[in-house]
């Protein structure tokens, strides 16, 4: 099989088998590269195949995902799953074998706002940095096929999506306005803990029928294979599917498409004989339903029929999230967005003036304007009762553009005196203070990605020019990072909500990557580190703390040794589980790939797991391809660029 064919076969590993919310240094790109272009040398190939399959595990009955929690909003968390690489390979193979069937299975509903419509084809070899920034979440399909060459920096998803890849686009669309013109009432419904409650066998009930599925349970079919796949990657569980990967949303969409069709039939055959587009209409985004009508009785009728259908699939509505709107369908969130948008654009107008020559008095006015807009934004959110999690990413994106434009302008100035540099410095700090304020109110994984993109300016020419004048802003940003790490850690760790919070780990990674040893050896960071490593071994804590330790290896020498030994023991003790347990397998691979673990230590670890003793050259060769962590941080900018494209989901 050619490299191009293997690229297509394993492409889903880059797009659809991982959660979006992960530590910034975690990547599937090394595994993808090794699978598409396997290593040379017979002995190294044997090692690679052993590592992929593990002893007597070419066809394990199941794999166990590594589950972890992320902050969903201020009030709750969500449990996500990192599937075992063996399971991820199965998902990729399923995509390759059934892509057209998946598309057909997701094309029968007239209600769905988000469904796969084509296999996304991206042929551009040009680096992302040389392209105009793609719109968030969009995947483009080239009209004319070109030679197969995938630029992985621009891949977002295996499929392209219609009609609305992001829910926020629906609220701003002409279709939303048209529905508002036609119908005076809107009811929004949400399926309670949808993915955690989906029964895997229900996909066969949806595509065929319940009686047919039970009668032909072992007969090969697309839906039966999908059912088996979702079980095998989730410890053979039939009640609930893994949450996080796009493949799970595809699975759910197949089921909900059938629910949509059945709902339309039941509503139109009810005693009211309701007509779609005249008496009612429905839209659905994944598991969120939007019911439109001009009478409350019609909404009640539709909801009753929907409840009956959902119950057939062992699913239920979340009664606490049922919301009714009267025309115009203006929510507190949309009003807040509008007012915050106005405040942000006013702020941008003030910031743009910084690029022009001005007097000290004019600077003071600009500084006051920035501070005033900070207060105004806070008041708007408080007034409407809308949490920052609903609007923070948008705010951070706009503020990030302002910061980047200011540093670009600073880099282009031919001559600049100290007064002008001071003006830039204080104006930039006003922006950064607002940025850190927003992140502190909404510490979630996506906001850590946004913060990482903002910190990229610390390596720009404009930033270096500012540092030549004064390093004050550098110190205060580092202090804000330390304070943010402390706040996040204390909120998640001490309150017992989440010991291995990816939110905190990403802040530690970003701080260590940006500021190196001064951040990694800071007393407050050391406190956080020691509390994190005091508990049981954990994969995400291991890779994140090791990344930080490697930025100050002399200072953290003993901690690094202890961390490696704790996790080495965990792998050896559970070596029989590596073929099935995602956490242990990932941990094993990243111990082998770690730059601070000696070749001798890697040989002993390999021998304990695989029994043989490979050469130094082969151990070094396997270390280059087996890991899932960018230990150097050299790919962090690339990773953040991919995160900027965002998932085709919200």
Compose a concise summary of this entry:
Helix content is 57%, strand content 7%. It has helices spanning 3-10, 12-15, 29-36, 42-53, 85-105, 167-171, 174-182, 194-197, 202-207, 210-215, 222-232, 246-268, 296-312, 332-352, 360-384, 392-412, 418-441, 445-455, 461-469, 472-494, 502-515, 517-520, 523-533, 539-549, 557-573, 582-593, 599-610, 616-626, 636-645, and strands spanning 66-73, 76-82, 114-119, 159-163, 185-190, 280-285, 288-293, 323-326. It is globular, with a radius of gyration of 26 Å.
How does this model look, in words?
The chain has 650 residues and is an alpha+beta fold. Among the domains are: 174-326, Alpha-Beta Plaits, CATH 3.30.70; 330-439, Ferritin (Up-down Bundle). The chain has 29 helices and eight strands. Strands 6-7-5-8 form a four-stranded antiparallel beta sheet, with helices on both faces. It is globular, with a radius of gyration of 26 Å.
Question: How is the secondary structure organized here?
Answer:
Blueprint: H1 3-10, H2 12-15, H3 29-36, H4 42-53, E1 66-73, E2 76-82, H5 85-105, E3 114-119, E4 159-163, H6 167-171, H7 174-182, E5 185-190, H8 194-197, H9 202-207, H10 210-215, H11 222-232, H12 246-268, E6 280-285, E7 288-293, H13 296-312, E8 323-326, H14 332-352, H15 360-384, H16 392-412, H17 418-441, H18 445-455, H19 461-469, H20 472-494, H21 502-515, H22 517-520, H23 523-533, H24 539-549, H25 557-573, H26 582-593, H27 599-610, H28 616-626, H29 636-645
Antiparallel strand pairs: 1-2, 3-4, 5-7, 5-8, 6-7
Helix pairs in contact: 4-28, 5-11, 12-13, 14-15, 14-16, 15-17, 16-17, 16-18, 16-19, 17-20, 18-21, 18-29, 20-21, 20-23, 21-24, 24-25, 25-26, 26-28
């Amino acid at each position: 099989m050619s490299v191009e064919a293997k690229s297509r076969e394993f492409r889903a590993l880059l797009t659809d088998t991982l959660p979006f919310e992960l530590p910034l240094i975690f990547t599937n790109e090394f595994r993808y590269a090794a699978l598409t272009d396997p290593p040379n040398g017979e002995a190294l190939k044997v090692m690679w195949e052993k590592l992929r399959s593990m002893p007597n595990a070419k066809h394990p009955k199941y794999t166990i995902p590594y589950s972890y929690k992320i902050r969903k909003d201020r009030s709750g968390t969500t449990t996500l799953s990192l599937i075992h690489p063996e399971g991820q390979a199965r998902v990729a193979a399923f995509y390759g074998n059934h892509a057209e069937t998946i598309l057909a299975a997701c094309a029968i509903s007239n209600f769905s706002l988000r469904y796969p419509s084509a296999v996304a084809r991206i042929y551009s070899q040009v680096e992302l940095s040389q392209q105009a920034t793609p719109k968030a979440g969009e995947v483009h399909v080239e009209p004319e096929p070109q030679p197969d060459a995938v630029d992985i920096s621009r891949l977002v998803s295996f499929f392209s999506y219609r009609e609305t890849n992001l829910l926020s686009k629906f609220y701003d669309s002409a279709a939303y306005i048209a529905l508002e013109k036609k119908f005076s009432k809107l009811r929004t419904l949400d399926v309670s803990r949808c993915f955690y409650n989906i029964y895997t066998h229900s996909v066969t009930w949806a595509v065929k029928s319940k009686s047919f599925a039970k009668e032909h349970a072992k007969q090969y079919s697309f839906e039966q294979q999908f059912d088996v796949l979702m079980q095998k990657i989730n410890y053979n569980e039939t009640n609930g599917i893994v949450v996080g990967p796009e493949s799970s949303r595809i699975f759910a969409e197949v089921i909900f498409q059938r629910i949509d069709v059945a709902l339309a039939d039941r509503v139109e055959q009810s005693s009211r004989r309701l007509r779609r587009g005249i008496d009612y209409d429905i839209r659905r985004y994944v598991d969120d339903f939007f019911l439109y009508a001009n009478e409350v009785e019609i909404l009640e009728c539709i909801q009753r029929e929907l409840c009956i259908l959902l119950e057939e699939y062992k699913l239920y509505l979340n009664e606490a999230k049922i919301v009714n709107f009267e025309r115009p369908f203006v929510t507190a969130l949309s009003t807040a967005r509008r007012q915050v948008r106005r405040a942000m654009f006013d702020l941008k107008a003030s910031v743009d003036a910084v690029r022009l020559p001005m007097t000290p008095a004019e600077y003071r006015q600009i500084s006051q304007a920035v501070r005033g807009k900070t207060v105004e934004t806070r008041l708007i959110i408080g007034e409407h009762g809308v949490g920052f999690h609903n609007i923070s990413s948008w705010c951070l994106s706009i503020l990030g553009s302002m910061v980047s434009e200011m540093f670009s302008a600073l880099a282009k100035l031919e001559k600049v005196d100290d007064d002008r540099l001071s003006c830039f410095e204080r104006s930039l700090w006003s922006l950064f203070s607002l940025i850190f304020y927003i992140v502190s109110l909404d510490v979630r994984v996506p906001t850590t990605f946004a913060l990482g993109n903002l910190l990229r300016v610390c390596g720009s020419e404009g930033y270096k020019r500012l540092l030549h004048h004064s390093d004050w802003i550098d110190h205060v940003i580092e202090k804000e990072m330390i304070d943010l790490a402390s706040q996040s850690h204390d909120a998640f760790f001490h309150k017992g909500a989440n010991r291995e919070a990816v939110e905190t780990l990403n802040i530690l990674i970003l701080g260590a990557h940006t500021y190196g040893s001064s951040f990694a050896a800071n007393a407050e960071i050391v406190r956080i580190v020691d509390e994190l490593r005091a508990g049981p071994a954990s994969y995400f804590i291991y890779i994140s703390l090791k990344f930080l330790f490697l930025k100050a290896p002399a200072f953290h020498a003993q901690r690094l040794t202890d961390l490696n030994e704790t996790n080495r023991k965990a792998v050896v003790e559970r070596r029989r589980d590596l073929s099935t347990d995602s956490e242990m397998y990932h941990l094993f691979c990243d111990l082998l790939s770690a730059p601070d673990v000696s070749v001798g230590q890697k040989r002993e670890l390999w021998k304990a797991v695989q029994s043989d003793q490979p050469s130094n050259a082969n151990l070094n060769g396997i270390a280059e391809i087996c890991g899932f962590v960018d230990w150097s941080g050299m790919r962090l900018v690339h990773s953040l660029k991919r995160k900027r494209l965002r998932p085709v989901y919200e």
